[in-house]
Amino acid sequence: MTLAAVVVFAIFEIVKTILFPQISLISSHIMTVIVAGILAFYVSRYAFSRYSAALKETERQTIMTEETNRLLSAVLATMREGVLIVNSQMRIVVYNGAAARIVRLPESNAQTRQQGEEAAAGVPFKLIEDAAEHSSIPASPSYRLADATRNPAVNEAFQRALDERAPVEVRVEMADRAAHSYQLNVAPLGSDLVVGVFFDITQLERLERVRREFFANLSHELRTPLTAILAYSETLLAGAIDDRENNTRFIEKLHKHASHMSELISDISDLSAIESGSVKLSLGPVRLKSVVAEIIALTEARRPNCDVTFEVFVPETLMVQADRTRLEQILYNLIDNAVKFNRPGGTVTVSTEESASRVAIHVEDTGAGITATDLPRVFERLYRTDKSRSRKVEGTGLGLAIVKHLVQAHGGEVSAASEIGRGSRFTFTLPVATAAVPPPSSSDARLATADQ
Ligand code: ADP
User: Fold this and answer.
1) N or C end: fewer C-beta atoms under 10 angstroms in the chain?
2) What's the whole-model pTM score?
3) pLDDT-derived band of residue 384, with 50, 70 and 90 as boundaries?
4) Is the CB of 385 within 6 Å of ligand 1?
5) For the chain, what percent of residues have pLDDT higher than 70?
6) Is pLDDT at 104 greater than 80 in this prediction?
7) Residue nearest (by alpha carbon) to ligand 1 atom 23
8) Does residue 367 line the site of ligand 1, with CB under 6 A?
9) Position 180 confidence tier, pLDDT thresholds 50, 70, 90
């Protein structure tokens, strides 16, 4: 535009000189001033419109950047993965709340929470480009990565990503949070930054360990009776079948081991059916006390020589919302364990505690108890405490896993507490049924003495 105005002005001057060679100097100057003024007006109007368009575009871009930053900081603040952005001096320039908890940044959660609140309130949060200069978290010596975590693997991963400008992936365990392991992915970001993301893989690793142990235990559980079956059948085939003194005993052993295998396989298929959700519960009001009485009678019938006393503290009128058959299975597993792992002359106590719409049912024994290391793991499939001791007691190692899944399918929870030398207490919760209470059946009469 300016060039065009200059050209127009030059043409005007030439035309003026050709057309009016005799014109006075004053008139010539007046004409020049008028034309120059008109041209200057148009040039400045054009420049002003260009300037305001540029200003509008800058404003639009600023709003977009602020909006993007606001969204980005909101995403960062709500992420479960820890995010750390580190500059070439190995200083942390941006981090989110999850990262603050992982590496224990000195700024603590308060600042990162504040960032989240600011983000939610629309306060811009500068990051990514020139993060070191613009980040809402000032880069200072106290934010050196080495100060935030002494873990060499974390520091090395960031340093390597900075040096090589290539992604780095490592598994790290935080020393101050020994129970947590992370997969740390560090990748270059722009020219002198790297971003590290911590994925918590503790639970994944635990599940993987449980799965590995399950298969190892399963093959062991199947191999033991199979080896016995093969040995006894080979002995019989080799001539022991005619040994009148021992052949019945051998066949009994064969039967015992085959029964164990059959029990194990039926428990496994039961468990996988419950876990996959293909078992449909037919829920209804069940009188808890009558089920407890039936299961105690069944346990006594199956273990005629068990030297334990049963005590039941269950209110006569207590109704729970449950699938009766599955409730029997839960109680049988717990009461049978309480008998199996009890001491001779011990006691098995079944009691309840009602709170609001739920009831906690306790099955307590006076056995040897379970160690603190074993206690959190007894609900795992095929897990058995003190293997050598457990092997002497029959069982598949699946009972408590079945209990856990059945209780959860009822919307309840199961837990265990134990004291070495004093016994264990297994507790599960169920919803209380609100239906009318039917009259007690005669089978409950025998338990009346120990009732509340
Ligand atoms: P099992 O068929 O071996 O009883 P469970 O799943 O019912 O399988 O129990 C798993 C393991 O937990 C048992 O082998 C035993 O070591 C331990 N356990 C369960 N209940 C008790 C208890 N009441 N007292 C002591 N240990 C128990």
Assistant:
1) C
2) 0.61
3) confident
4) yes
5) 85
6) no
7) 338
8) yes
9) confident
Per residue, the 3-state secondary structure of the chain, as one string, reads CHHHHHHHHHHHHHHHHHHCCCCCHHHHHHHHHHHHHHHHHHHHHHHHHHHHHHHHHHHHHHHHHHHHHHHHHHHHHHCCCEEEEEECCCEEEEECHHHHHHHCCCCHHHHHHHHHHHHHCCCCCCCCCCHHHHCCCCCCHHHEHHHHCCCHHHHHHHHHHHHHCCCEEEEEECHHHCCCEEEEEEEEECCCEEEEEEEECHHHHHHHHHHHHHHHHHHHHHHHHHHHHHHHHHHHHCCHHHCCCCHHHHHHHHHHHHHHHHHHHHHHHHHHHHHCCCCCCCCEEEEHHHHHHHHHHHHHHHCCCCCEEEEEECCCCCEEEECHHHHHHHHHHHHHHHHHCCCCCEEEEEEEEEECCEEEEEEEECCCCCCCCCHHHCCCCCCCCCHHHHHHCCCCCCHHHHHHHHHHHCCCCEEEEEECCCEEEEEEEEEECCCCCCCCCHHHHHHHHHCC
Binding site membership of 384 for ligand 1 (Cβ less than 6 Å): yes
d(CA 374, CA 207): 16
Arithmetic mean of pLDDT, 185-195 = 91
Q: For ligand 1, say whether the CB of 424 is within 6 Å of any of its atoms.
A: yes
Query: How many Å lie between the centroid of ligand 1 and the Cα of residue 338?
Result: 8
Closest residue to atom 3 of ligand 1, CA basis: 397
- Per-residue confidence (pLDDT) for residue 263, from 0 to 100: 86
- Selected residue with higher pLDDT from 116 and 227: 227
Mutational test site, ligand 1, from 342, 400, 414, 419, max ligand atoms within 8 Å of CB: 400
Is the CB–ligand 1 distance for residue 395 below 6 Å? yes
CA of 254 to the centre of ligand 1 (A): 25
- Nearest CA residue ID for atom 2, ligand 1: 395
315 pLDDT above the threshold of 70: yes
In which band, very low, low, confident or very high, does the pLDDT at 358 lie, cut at 50, 70 and 90? very high
Among 271, 378, 398, which residue has the most ligand 1 atoms within 8 Å of its CB, making it the best to mutate?
378
Q: Tell me if 382 CB under 6 Å of ligand 1.
A: no
Please indicate whether residue 403, judged by its CB atom, sits closer than 6 Å to ligand 1.
no
Asked whether the predicted pLDDT for residue 97 surpasses 60, the reply is yes
337 lines ligand 1 (CB under 6 A): yes
Tell me the CA–centroid distance for residue 379 and ligand 1, in Å: 9
Residue pLDDT, tens place only, 245-264: 888 989 998 999 999 889 88
pLDDT score for 277: 79
